[in-house]
């Protein structure tokens, strides 16, 4: 591996979101943030809502991914994401509205509130806004 | 012989029916193109998901996990995917036959229907329908698949159903679609597939899981089921439009045949009536002279 690159693929149910070679890829997992360089050990991990940063030789691209899992092999990283978005696909107003809704729900502390769901919705909304800034 | 007027009327009605079937064929052709594109886009995700789950199960063979063994309940959930509209040839009846003709006893089946046609028929035949998602078929999204898989998985975890199946129409290509009954849970991947998978991948490579395999399985299996349901939905839409396109195509060409047949009959009747009139006139003239 002369150039020390790793193949990156991000696949969502609707499309092949990204393919290319990268020097490093960073993303969020349920266990915390990880950065993957080429020749990483084989690892399967679950993706948490967050920003994925792909560093190629020329540039750095960012996207939002929510939920899914990643398979890391020494020469290849595959992200199977349920939702993935580029910054220009995100509607900030919608994300802000979603944030407010989620906060409201969490504050009310309704007995039949699905806390997990509200928290995930909040996280997604925040990730979307962070990426846009 | 039918009168000229009758034949003419019949011909008109056939040709207006032909116009309708022609238009429906055009519409479903366009829809098929879109649905096919979508099915092709979904394929890589689905294939990766399948490969990953295969390799996970290969490595996690010793794990005793609820998703990997059949529940105690006798009930078997079947998710049936049919269409909301008819006029699609044998598309819906093939799915219905798949269920009525399956080895699973009628009493053990619990249906989750997507698509009105199979729902109506199976309901009236006395099958138990747990819930219906008929409007999903109009434009299936991944969120819809998530909703369905969540409900079915909940039933599985709570022990209401012991096994989960998926009945849908597999889209092979534009002209051939095949009804399929697929077992979703417990995850059941044949030994052959595992062996094949092993050969392809570097068998010495050791896969790590984070969090541990049990928890990863907990999170990945629902995603696996969702992706299977979504893949089936997308393929079913493509198959439905393909089936309708074919049905309408043959209906249009049948109408063509009937019209040419009727035209011949009409012309014969016209000729016959002219001949008869002439004979009458000649006979009348002769009688006068």
Give the secondary structure arrangement, pairings included:
The complex is a heterodimer of chains A (133) and B (289).
Chain A: E1 6-11, E2 16-22, E3 24-29, E4 32-36, E5 43-47, E6 50-55, E7 60-73, E8 76-85, H1 92-108, H2 115-132
Parallel strand pairs in A: 1-8
Antiparallel strand pairs in A: 1-2, 3-4, 3-6, 5-7, 6-7, 7-8
Helix pairs in contact in A: 1-2
Chain B: H1 4-59, E1 76-81, H2 91-100, E2 109-114, H3 116-124, E3 128-132, H4 142-157, E4 163-171, E5 177-185, H5 191-200, E6 208-210, H6 213-288
Parallel strand pairs in B: 1-2, 1-4, 2-3
Antiparallel strand pairs in B: 4-5
Task: Give a description of the structure.
The complex is a heterodimer of chains A (133) and B (289). With 133 residues, chain A is an alpha+beta fold. Chain A has two domains: 6-87, F0F1 ATP synthase delta/epsilon subunit, N-terminal (ATP Synthase, domain 1); 91-132, Single alpha-helices involved in coiled-coils or other helix-helix interfaces, CATH 1.20.5.440. Chain A is built from two helices and eight strands. Chain A has helices at 92-108, 115-132, and strands at residues 6-11, 16-22, 24-29, 32-36, 43-47, 50-55, 60-73, 76-85. In chain A, strands 1, 2, 3, 4, 5, 6, 7 and 8 form an eight-stranded mixed sheet that branches. In chain A, strand 7 and strand 8 (76-85) form a beta hairpin. In chain A, helix 1 runs antiparallel to helix 2 (115-132). Chain B has 289 residues and is α/β, with parallel strands linked by helices. Helices cover 61% and strands 13% of the residues of chain B. Chain B contains six helices and six strands; from the N terminus they run αβαβαβαββαβα. In chain B, 35% of the residues are buried. The mean pLDDT of chain B is 83. At the A-B interface, strand 5, strand 7 and strand 8 of A face helix 1, strand 6 and helix 6 of B. Strand 5 of chain A pairs parallel with strand 6 of chain B, so a sheet runs across the interface.
């Amino acid at each position: 591996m002369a150039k020390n690159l790793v193949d990156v693929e991000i696949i969502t149910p609707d499309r092949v979101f990204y393919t290319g070679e990268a020097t490093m890829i960073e993303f969020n997992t349920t266990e915390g943030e990880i950065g993957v360089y080429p020749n990483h050990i084989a690892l399967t991990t679950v993706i948490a809502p967050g920003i994925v940063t792909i560093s190629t030789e020329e540039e750095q691209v960012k996207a939002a991914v929510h939920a899914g899992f990643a398979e890391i092999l020494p020469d290849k990283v595959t992200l199977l994401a349920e939702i993935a978005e580029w910054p220009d696909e995100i509607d900030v107003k919608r994300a802000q509205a979603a944030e407010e809704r989620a906060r409201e729900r969490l504050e009310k502390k309704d007995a039949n509130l699905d806390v997990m769901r509200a928290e995930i919705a909040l996280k997604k909304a925040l990730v979307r806004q962070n990426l846009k800034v | 012989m039918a009168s000229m007027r009758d034949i003419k009327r019949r011909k008109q009605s056939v040709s207006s029916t032909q116009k309708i079937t022609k238009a429906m064929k055009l519409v479903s052709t366009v829809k098929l193109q879109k649905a096919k594109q979508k099915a092709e886009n979904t394929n890589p995700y689905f294939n990766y998901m399948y490969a990953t789950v295969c390799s996970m199960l290969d490595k996690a063979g010793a794990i005793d996990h609820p998703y990997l063994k059949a529940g105690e309940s006798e009930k078997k959930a079947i998710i049936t995917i049919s269409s909301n509209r008819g006029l699609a040839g044998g598309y819906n009846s093939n799915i219905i036959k798949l269920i009525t003709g399956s080895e699973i006893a009628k009493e053990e089946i619990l249906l989750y229907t997507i698509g009105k046609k199979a729902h109506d028929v199976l309901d009236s035949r006395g099958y138990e329908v747990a819930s219906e998602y008929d409007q999903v078929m109009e434009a299936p999204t991944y969120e819809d698949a998530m909703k369905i898989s969540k409900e079915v998985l909940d039933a599985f975890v709570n022990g209401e159903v012991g096994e989960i199946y998926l009945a849908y129409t597999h889209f092979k290509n534009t002209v051939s679609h095949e009804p399929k009954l697929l077992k979703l849970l417990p995850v059941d991947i044949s030994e052959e597939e595992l062996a094949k998978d092993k050969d392809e991948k570097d068998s010495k490579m050791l896969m790590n899981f984070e969090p541990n395999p049990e928890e990863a399985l907990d999170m990945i299996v629902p995603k696996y089921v969702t992706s299977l349901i979504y893949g089936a939905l997308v393929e079913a839409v493509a198959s439905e439009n393909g089936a309708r396109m074919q049905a309408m195509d043959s209906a249009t060409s049948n109408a063509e045949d009937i019209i040419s047949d009727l035209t011949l009959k009409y012309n014969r009747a016209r000729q016959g009536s002219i001949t008869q009139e002439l004979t009458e006139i000649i006979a009348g003239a002769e009688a006068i002279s």
